[in-house]
Amino acid sequence: GVTVYSKSGDCSSLALDDVFAFEWKSKPYFLKNMHSTVHILGSDDYSFRNPVQFINLVDPEVRDMYWEVDAVLDSLFYHPSHPPFMAQRVIQRFGVSNPSPGFIERCAVAYANGSYDNGRFGTGKYGDLGALVAAILLDDEAREVVLDSDTGHGHLREPLVKVLSFFKSMGIRFESPLHVPTLISLESKIGQGSYESQSVFSFFLPEFVPSVPSVGAAGLVAPESMVLTGDNVLDLYEAIFGTIKFGVTNCYKPSLEGWRVGMPWSCANTDEGDTSKSPAAPTYWPSSTASVDHILDELSILLTSGRLSAKNRAVIKTAVEPEFMSGNVAKSIRIAQQLVFASPEFHSTGITRNKNEVREPKGYVDPPTAPYKAVVVIMMLGGADSYNLLVPVSDCAVGNQYQEYHEARGTSHALPLTNITFISAASSDQNCNTFGVTNDFDYLAELYNESEALFFANTGILSKPMTKHDNWADDTPFQLGAHNSMVHEFYRNDAFNANANTGAFGRILDKLKLQGYQTSANAAGAGGTLLTGDQQYNNPITSVTTKSPTPLNENPTVENLYDLIKQLNGVGEADSNVMSETWSSRLAAGLFEHEQMEMIAGLPDFDIDNYGGSGSLNGRFKSVLEFMKSRHFRKVNREVYVVKQEGYDHHGNNGVGDNFRSANSAIRKFVTELKNLNLWDSTTLVMGSDFGRSLNPNSNGGSDHAWAGNYFLAGGSVKGGRILGRYPQPLTPDNSQWIGRGRFIPTTPWDSVWNGIAMWLGLWEDDDLTWAIPNRESFDKCTDLFTDQDLFVDGACTCTECIPVTYPPTTPQTSAPTAAPRTIYQGEDASFDSSGKASSGNSGWTGEGYANMGGKDSWVEFSNVDGGSGGVCTMAFRYAVGTELSRDCSLTVNGVNVGTVTFPPTGSWETWRYDYSVETTCLPGNNVVRITAITSEGGPNLDRMDIMTSPTPTTPPPTNPPTSNPTTVPSSTPTAGPTKAPTSPTSNPSAGPSSAPTPQPSSAPTNLPSNMPTSIPTSPPTNLPTNVPTSAAPTSYPSSKRTAAPTPLPTPLPTPFPTQIPTNTPVTASPTTSVPTKSPTDTPPVVGDPVSSVLDTLTTGTVVSGCSEIGSVTRVFDRKTSKFWCTRTGTIEIAFTPSHGRMSHVEKMRYYVHNNCPDCDAIDYRLEGRVDSSSAWEIIGEGDLPSKASALSRNARGLPCGGTYESGDPNRHYDEMHFPSNTGVFLEYKVSFFNARDNYRNSLQFAEIELPGLLK
Fold first, then answer.
1. What is the mean pLDDT of residues 1110-1139?
2. In angstroms, rounded to a whole number, what is the distance separating the alpha carbons of residues 222 and 209?
3. How many angstroms separate the CA atoms of 20 and 34, rounded?
């Protein structure tokens, strides 16, 4: 009820000072009889509630401040989101990492009501933890054994919980109360130790997703996997094995020792199984030793809750029986204890189903040929206060910015000028020409002044450009200010979740590996998420540890222990628990890393003599440097390292100087050794952090969480001595980026930084960069995104094109941003064959259901698909595939086969994925789209199809020749190359005749770089190359800085060069093609309809050979400069069947270049035709492209490309080849490309092909 306290003593009339008393959520409240509203002056439509406050601004009192803080805490505790948040987090700690919404709701209700099971548990008061714990432990979802079979149920057990569980189950005995192991100092050994959490966020984050494909693909989390580095996994094994054999002792490392009092034992030599020298040892003895089965039955219950699988039990039994049958029962028990502990069933709480096939992570076989490059990210965790790193000083265009800085920071935080090393920013676009770097980081200032370091000012995670005058809070699709959220976003750099559960450098390395680079992702204490790639590539992450590799299984109970452990943790079946898979895959990786490090440690000159220094950061840098020294052994040429430095969360003091001094010392040593090893020019070091901190200090002597910060990039190839981005000016609330207390909205996005670094590593194509950095298209390419030329002295980007900005949606979506009009067609509204149907049984769909396709040849058809005014259509599908294998479907538009669409597995039938899949051409008005299953398993479940249309302008053939000619540029003589049939080549822009190529023997291409192999070696050479000849560099780039392109993937691939060279044909002054051996007509065609290209926009294009990965073939003939790309594996052959069905005669071929990468242009070709699909191909023309010797200027991407019968588009750049002697009339055509300008690139790209001629 409500009690009213009235001054009048009568409730019939209430006054302003009367008070209402009541209880809500178990808390008493006293509210004054007043409601205050603020009205906007001059408007009756706008008003808002005046917020309640306790502090009197005129006469503040300490008492009122306590009350206000108490009210804030109450608002958080009693907020409706608190019970479900609390419930989910506590459930995760009680064994279910991914509780269902229903489970969370039931526990949240019990917590909020303070009661569970009709009052049996709890006090009935809001926030009762007893009621919450009872609800968790007694809920069906926590107790039903059948849920163990759910592949996503359960969790990975925490390291300390596993140790304590083993102690309890195996009857650990302590000699005296003083001799109890404290389990301290274990965080560095097993990933977790008593009272050793590095921060208030514990040892792992509740939303952590490991790099195991099955977890991320299913939309699940596995928090405990965050501490599963390879050395932690093996140290836990060795410590428990040592405890079984010798008790808890430090005589054998690693161990679980750490005692209240001094060392209570002697380390005299002991035999395996002798625990007499240890004051704590397991005393377990089975209740029955009648048979091995009796022993295993009991151990399975005690250690795995009876989950030990039949296959793993059989492996263990085979290992135990010999000792048991010999009569050594005690030793057989120790073998059983070690193997059951080593099984995945002990480390996870789900059903393991493995094939007992050993997981075999593998490295590269062949050495790389491209030079080595590495990126080292130093992750300053906690939020580095970078306003005490980079400071404006003097010579300012507007105002006194140092004074602004000092006033904003106050005397407690502002760096005095005596503690600053001055640097010049005169070459940077900043308000001040002189800045300063804290003397605590003086080595960074040295690198800057030597032009080997630069700064990124006001940088941070950003969804799109914005100011405080925009709706920045709603336009930011991630949680600002929280450590876990912002670290996660920094690592992912994917604001709109276009590539879910992947990290920025994981995606970059994925694309580099697809191009043939030999990559390595390495975590030195942090950064697993940053390094996680797409599940379909499953590229591993290596743990770089500060521990030296030590022998495993010393003083063995069983000799082949780790061979047996590999069997127990073998390859899982499709329905094996994902937590079990996570443990086993990480163990396999850890064993591979350990075996590799043992071999590396034995290499000459591996150790770094006299490295010196102390501290965890120094040790991590030393380990990274040692690992970099082993690059030749590991056969890698592109690496990313993430190095952790903790302790930057300074709310209560201004302690950032200590952190900077530690980083300064460690980086100085690291860079000095890199220079000694001649690796400095190949390495770049970039600073990262959760977020920047507030410019204004707080009242507790520290600074608080903010957004933008200032960061550095350093390296021997860095174009240093500059401050990029825009340092905030003014440093006052008048700044358009200021959002309170010296917090600034970033003006430089991390997307920009990663874009430039990715290009330096070797990603230059827009398609690859946008896949790796999905949100880069939210920023202007010319003004917002750095290129490798902006950041590095050896940058090679031509970068003349400015792509349009396509701002992303304001709410998170899994689709990539697009500016094209979108029409959605729901799967349940489609037509089906007899085996398909509309369904709604699996959750997660949009609309009212989804299309459930049947088996092979089943189809789904969308009729009345609006093609707008006609032109290019981009089709995107939201789908689910719950099987292990991809499902392929053919796609037809208006009865014309567009190609094959592959739908990769999504992890389950309730996990939906949204992919931009196909570009094709739609007719104006209605179109019919059909998807037909071509794999035996059938098709996917289709939730919806989205259509984005872009009109394609057409240029009708002019009645008269053009009156103006393109700008002319004389062509140069091509270099020697494979011989071709003669052609009459010209280039646009071009006016003069081209010199004819010199014939060469046909046995091998002679225009390849001299250091390029003609086949893939079957074994590595004994001496690895230390450089790449400059002959591999095209003339358009500085040969001293140009990097060679990547080698093929480590698995054998076809050689990326033509295996068949066109035969010699004499070159004449008036080039003609060789006459076909069989002509489809008796006389040359003399009549027909002239067309700009016999390939219409509905042509069916098929890549016949030569590509491992391709872009949409429709881009070849879409009348636009949309780029077609191909990852080359040999001679590229593309066949075309025009949709008009008419025979045609081709007189010319035009090859339009793409938007960047001149090295990826084709330099030679062959055009063939045939009468029908059963006839032989006949040569129309072949030879070198006119621009072989000198690349054409680039065509901006996505522009109309409208040639005519008489001439190509005068506004575009292209090569044109004439075929005056062609007498053939054909139905189908095929074009082949033998070489790119730089074959090392393994990539060929172009914008458009036109075949002007006559339609019969």
1. 87
2. 6
3. 10
